[in-house]
Amino acid sequence: xxxxxxQMGYPVITILGNTTAExxxxxxxxxxxxxxxxxxxxxxxxxxxxxxxxPLTIVVGNRSHVSSxxxxxxxxxxxxxxxTYLDKGSWLLxxxxxxxxxxxNYDLRNWRLLIDQLIRNHEVLxxxxxxxxxDDAFSLARAGYLPQNIPLEIIRYLSEERDFLPWHAxxxxxxxxxxxxxxxxxxxxxxxxILKQVATTYIKLGWPKNNFNGSxxxxxxxxxxxxxxxxxxxCSFGNKHCHQQASTLxxxxxxxxxxxxxxxxxxxxxxxxxSLLDEDVWEFIWMKFHSTTAVSEKKILLEALTCSDDRNLLxxxxxxxxxxxxxxxxxxxxxxxxxxxxxxxRDLAWKFFRDKWKIxxxxxxxxxxxxxxxxxxxxxxxxx
Length: 384
Fold this sequence. Notes:
Belongs to the peptidase M1 family. This protein is of the alpha+beta class.
């Protein structure tokens, strides 16, 4: 266990098909690192000598059959193994149901076979295997182990996916990618591609509904989580119906002064409404932020205010966050971080953070100052 508890990080296993010998594979292990510059530094620090005893579970499959699970103990940098039933049309899958604390990479041929399997019949693979494949693919691409097109090709099957975990794995990876690509000239190509994957499931699931007494019509927990995940993706990437629905719900709240918005999508509706509608909506949310006493609702309302496309309103909010009578000290850094996540406020937040650092630092207790230095600045830097 010392290898897992005392060594930094965790490994990535790479499984390569052997083109010269049938039923043979090559398995390698190395320290998984996201940052390319850190990889170079790791080589100098001899982190390349890290080795783990890895219990690699593995199956072989094709369009109609999946083998029983086998286990290979990987203890060297590189090993050769013989795999039964492995032929040209078969794919390999490692770390079955994500029971091991490591990532798994494959040669491009095997990735494409797995993608083909997902598109033809994704239910051959378990829910956790599907989620694991998506998570591994995006993480490996982010770290430079895999071309970026592979994870984007994997999610082509999502229009047929009905389980929460694979959707959650995809959305968790897509939001940071979106923040990087939204500055690119051809961003609309990526945006339209994601909307295409989301559209079918969004239409099928619809929006949560309230009973006549205002309570939510209950479905299973997994179903509600899936619906929320898909609605958030649809609204975030600009689905027109999602935008219309959010605008209708928030306009109804303003006109009737009765909040009929289902609880589990309120944050999505508030944020979408503030970004799409005029300054009056922002002022209405600001008023509700001041009048509500519920801490959880207050937090959602404050975050919604950072979603505006109006740079003047974002600047106003940033400056108001310095007033502890308006925004609590512990929430001020959250305002900056959420404004920074807004493409219209990214540069405003970074400038404000630098210009007001002394005020931010001295207005907090010593303990909280250290927390900002460690968490706040890193969070802001990663967002920017």
